[in-house]
Amino acid sequence: MIQLNDPKWKELKGGYNTPYDASIALKKLEETDYSHEVDNIFKELWEELHHQGDVGLASYFAVPHLIRIAKVKKRVNSSLLGLIAVIEIQRHKKNPQIPKEYEEAYLNSLNEISELVETTKNRKWDLEFTAAALSAIAASKGQIKVAEAVLNFDDEDILDEFLESY
């Protein structure tokens, strides 16, 4: 995992296959305690780290930091889990490979997803959070097809449609 002050961030590409310095948004996420700022940061991260199935090295390098920040701040939401799930799902498609020297840190960070979700066990889960949490867990365990399917069940209509055809 590269540190947030590493100049390498400026060269990493995001979901648009153009350079995106995710360290700026990640530092803001680390520093803020205001929910409206967190929401805006996640909107930016979703927009820049994933685009129509495309992810880049900035996307992969952001994941361990997202998990670390969530643990420290005790802030686990559907935006966080959904973004991590999407990045991991798309990593297994036609996207760049994680450089070998960073792969272990990335995969080790995914092992912490279950622990993050565990911290939410006493709160009420809505459909969006449930789909994101289950998808992130499935993705972290290598169940990519399950993760992708479950993530799509965050919409009541899609869920009803599936259940009717089942």
Keywords:
166 residues; mainly alpha; 0% strand; globular
Could you give a short description of this structure?
With 166 residues, the chain is mainly α.
Itemize the secondary structure elements and their pairings:
Blueprint: H1 22-31, H2 35-49, H3 57-73, H4 78-91, H5 100-110, H6 113-118, H7 127-140, H8 144-151, H9 156-165
Helix pairs in contact: 1-2, 1-3, 2-4, 3-4, 3-5, 4-7, 4-8, 7-8
What is the CA-based Rg, rounded? 15 Å
Average of the residue pLDDT scores: 96
Oligomerization status of the protein chains: single chain
Q: Secondary-structure element sequence?
A: HHHHHHHHH
Q: Any idea what the shape is?
A: globular
Distance between the termini: 43 Å
Low-confidence stretches: none
Number of helices: 9
Give the fraction of residues assigned to helices: 55-70%
- Structural class, please? mainly alpha
Task: Report what the structure shows.
- With 166 residues, the chain is mostly helical.
- It has one domain (7-165).
- It has helices at 22-31, 35-49, 57-73, 78-91, 100-110, 113-118, 127-140, 144-151, 156-165.
- The longest helix is centred in the middle third of the chain and has 17 residues, at 57-73.
- The termini are far apart.
